[in-house]
Amino acid sequence: MEDQRDDLWEETNSQIEALAKSEPEKIRLLLESPIETMNPTDLFFRGLVLDSRRQYKGAREARDLALERSYSPEQRASMSDQMQFVRRQMVGSPGPVVDLASGMGSLLEVLLPGADQHFVATDLSPRVLMRDQAVFGEITRGRGMSYLAFDARHTPFADGSVPTMVTYLGLANVRDPGGLMKELRRVVSGELLAINLFYPERRGPNTDAIRQLKLEALMYRKSALRQFREAGFKVKVENSQNVLSRPTPKGEILEGAETDSLPVADTFVEWCTLVAS
């Protein structure tokens, strides 16, 4: 899923920089192949290369087409619906609004237009935030926006200093979350709106992959809700939608490259928004 891994941008940029030196022909093919014929995963990486070169319009075109070709209309509709749900839920919410694990800024793109709160984009990678600052600078001109790089397990915020926190898949993909939920409970004084997805716990290829990725704590409904409650949150599952999810294709120009670690086999996943306070 787009923005699925909080380290994707940093990891990928390092790989692309190395590839540009060792196999420049592959980078040339990524950038010069006819966009209408390209594999969606290669398109996604084309977008990352263009982003790194500050060619944001072309990067957006490539990523949008990659999204369209990677996911079914039902999947894309559910992603969009969750973000619109958060937008509606946030009307009148106090700021500043902290977007946890902003990544490529999918949620910010929906929330920023028309909003009057001050937003704080966050990510583990400073390079991601430099990109976001360039992309969102025009939208936020006049009211400002902050950018903070940190590990979500150790935030720089004082106790109870965050009235509103949002995140798009920023929780489900934290490996070995440890004290993450207690840290979020420490800093959030108001509401946490977390777009999430839950996998069924039936034993199979997906549960095996989730275990290998160490994502069990927040990728399953029961354990995730338990994590919230044990940290002291009152939490509700809102806007729940069950959607068929299929593995995304691997790259062809970048042989074997992938954008999503999950699912590894067809399954129905529960898209939802967790509303915690």
Task: Describe what you observe in this structure.
The protein has helices spanning 8-22, 24-32, 40-52, 56-70, 73-89, 106-111, 126-136, 180-187, 205-212, 216-219, 221-230; strands spanning 97-99, 119-123, 146-149, 162-168, 188-198, 235-245, 267-276. The protein is of the alpha/beta class. The chain has 2 domains: 8-70, no CATH class; 73-276, Rossmann fold (3-Layer(aba) Sandwich), CATH 3.40.50. Strands 3-2-1-4-5-7-6 form a 7-stranded mixed β-sheet.
Brief summary:
With 277 residues, the chain is α/β, with parallel strands linked by helices.
Keywords, please?
277 residues; alpha/beta; Rossmann fold; seven-stranded mixed β-sheet; globular; disordered N terminus
CATH superfamily placement of the largest domain: Vaccinia Virus protein VP39
In terms of structural class, how would the helical and strand content be classed?
A: alpha/beta
- CATH class term of the largest domain: Alpha Beta
Mean pLDDT: 90
Order of strands, main sheet, comes to 3-2-1-4-5-7-6
Percentage beta strand = 15-25%
Order of helices and strands: HHHHHEHEHEEHEHHHEE
Assembly context of the chains: single chain
Helix amount = 40-55%
Q: What's the CATH topology label of the largest domain?
A: Rossmann fold
Secondary structure: number of strands? 7
Shape type: globular
Structural domain count = 2
Low-confidence stretches: 1-6
Count of DSSP-assigned helices = 11
Spatial separation of the terminal alpha carbons? 27 Å
Query: What would you say the CATH architecture of the largest domain is?
Result: 3-Layer(aba) Sandwich
